[in-house]
Amino acid sequence: MTPQITRLTVLISGSGTNLEALITACNNDELPNTQIVRVISNRKAAYGLVRAQNAGIATRYHNLVEYKKRHSDSVSQAREEYDKDLARLILEDQPHLVVCAGWMHILSSQFLDPLEAANITIINLHPALPGAYNGATDKTLPEQNAIERAQKDWMEGRNDKTGVMIHEVISEVDMGAPILVQEIPFQKGVDEDLEALEERIHKIEWKAIVAGTGLATKELWAKRHQKAIESESHKESLG
Question: By CB neighbour count within 10 A (0-12 exposed, 13-18 middle, 19+ buried), where does 7 fall?
């Protein structure tokens, strides 16, 4: 049971190549009956906003700096208020699914709880295998360095592969249930070049984020359909 249109909100922080993959997929059979209703960035200069505008998609810049100014004595309070308002902005658009596509901001319960209450699924792209190089592992090495960290471990003999995963977003960073996992074996004589490795992994990401979004969409509608059946059965049992 799938509705006529599945509504997506996409969160970005950078150039938006993964967003571009989603835009293209929404215009062909890869993500049928799917519409990106808004793209939100936490960085004003993110080129992904331009990609969205060129595609006729509504955009929003949601700036954490202003919240830090209001709560100069408490960064945690600033982030919580930021996340609360971000949730409110998203709920106004009534999406079915939120896709974090290169979103570099750790989301707190102030964001996650309202969306869970509204039955909105949140998924994220992480350029590593489940449990590896998550954004909270090392405060000095942000998530965008997951590829570099994996390459370093490979060159020092600690692993022989990395990967890409699409997973559900929970309060523990990059630890939600995997929806799609793609292993990427390292290639000796090739992957010592970090820039070339990043390019190869990014190309895999573009396919993974589309496939993962498709799987998440099917799952969320299956769950809603099952819930509707159970609700109807319960009404019938009450007479």
Answer: middle
126 is a catalytic site residue = yes
Q: CA nearest 120: which of 12, 3, 10, 220?
A: 220
Q: Which of 96, 105, 126, 167 is catalytic?
A: 126
Instruction: Name every residue whose Cβ is closer than 8 Å to that of residue 184 and which is 6 or more positions away in sequence.
Output: 161, 162, 163, 164, 200, 201, 204
Can you tell me the distance from the alpha carbon of 215 to that of 220, in angstroms, rounded to the nearest whole number? 9
Q: Is the dihedral of CA 111, 46, 145, 215 positive or negative?
A: positive
> DSSP readout, 82-101?
HHHHHHHHHHHH--SEEEES
pLDDT digits (tens, 9 = 90+) for 10-40: 999 999 999 999 999 998 989 999 999 999 9
What pLDDT, in 10s, does the model give residues 113-132? Answer: 999 999 999 999 999 999 89
Separation between Cα atoms, residue 19 and residue 12, nearest integer Å: 8
* Residue in the structure block whose two tokens are 């820039």: 195
What's the pLDDT at 196?
96
Strand order in the sheet with 178-185: 59-61, 34-41, 6-12, 97-100, 121-126, 161-168, 178-185
The answer to whether 39 and 58 have CB atoms below 8 angstroms apart is yes
The pLDDT of residue 126: 93
CA 128 to chain centre: 14
Token pair of 105, please? 């901001």
